[in-house]
Amino acid sequence: MSCGSDSSSGPVDPSAHVVDLPGAAGVIDFDDIVYSRALDRVLVPARESGLYLVDPRNGTARRAGRLGSADSADEGGRMLFVLDREARTITVLDERGQVATSVKLDVPADYVRFVPSRRELWVTEPAASPSGIEIFALGSGAAPAPRRSGFIAVPDGPEALALATRRRTAYTHAGADLLAIDIDRRTIDGRWPTGCPGTHGFPRVDARERRVLASCASNGEVALIDPASGRAVAREAAGGDEALPGYSPTTDHFYVRGDPGTKLVTLQRSKAGFRRVRTVNVPQDGHCLTADESGHYWTCDARAGRILQFEDRAAR
């Protein structure tokens, strides 16, 4: 881990900790990134360079398994689930990073997420006909093979996926709307306009599961939705293009950047909507954003093939 900037990837805020990915390509078209509480690691699918696990406490990264490509990933039951979009496969890795089993997909997929209450994998398939979410049940044992168990049609979507575990609700974007899906009944229970011409990125659910941050396909814009009323109670635009949102339950802060875009903004809720807590400079191209539970938030530097870690000073 080092600090500083690289002229080939654009200016980097001096407060950034640069996390290099050993053996990775020089340029990586990042997309998905997720924090695993059980492993206390940030999961970084690095496309053809494979899957990396980053320790948030010291910023070191290691590659997990030998994978053809890693486009989306999640963790559950101390197993890793890795989606290869081109090969149309989901590979299951054990906690040592060894390949345990895999399943072939019939249609192109976008993202994979583990649903702990159901012990299922939910796979978004916006290119399917009809578009929707394919569900795979996981068997028991150390190497459970995913088995198809259902499908939820999502018109005009789905664009990414986020879980509210206590509410047993999943949220996704579709067209210009935010959708709520009942996890147990596998039905769409709510659809609310975001006020965006189109949506993009992962919805983010706050710690109390009372608000959901929806994100737009332009201007780095986000809208905070109240699922009880379906109203947008706050809006903010970080600038740039497609919005990438994040959230930290540790600080109760939201984060947003546009990609392409050069500003990453930390947001705190206020009576007036949102208050900007901090803005940092980031390289223009970086298509991922998440937060861990140690007071850090993370984004990508695509042109340099690396990850940037920032400290949220409210966590001190």
Keywords:
disordered N terminus; 0% helix; mainly beta; 316 residues; 5-stranded antiparallel beta sheet
Question: Your description of this structure?
Answer:
The chain has strands at residues 2-3, 17-20, 34-36, 41-45, 51-54, 61-64, 72-76, 79-84, 89-93, 99-104, 111-115, 120-125, 132-138, 146-153, 159-164, 169-174, 177-182, 187-193, 204-205, 212-215, 221-226, 231-237, 242-248, 253-259, 263-270, 273-281, 289-291, 296-301, 306-311. Residues 1-7 have low confidence and may be disordered. It has 316 residues and is mostly beta strands. The protein has no helices and 29 strands. The protein has one domain (2-315): 7 Propeller (Methylamine Dehydrogenase, Chain H). The two termini are 20 Å apart. The protein has a five-stranded antiparallel β-sheet, with no helix packed on it.
Task: Detail the topology: elements first, then pairings.
Blueprint: E1 2-3, E2 17-20, E3 34-36, E4 41-45, E5 51-54, E6 61-64, E7 72-76, E8 79-84, E9 89-93, E10 99-104, E11 111-115, E12 120-125, E13 132-138, E14 146-153, E15 159-164, E16 169-174, E17 177-182, E18 187-193, E19 204-205, E20 212-215, E21 221-226, E22 231-237, E23 242-248, E24 253-259, E25 263-270, E26 273-281, E27 289-291, E28 296-301, E29 306-311
Antiparallel strand pairs: 1-2, 2-29, 3-4, 4-5, 5-6, 7-8, 8-9, 9-10, 11-12, 12-13, 13-14, 15-16, 16-17, 17-18, 19-20, 20-21, 21-22, 23-24, 24-25, 25-26, 27-28, 28-29
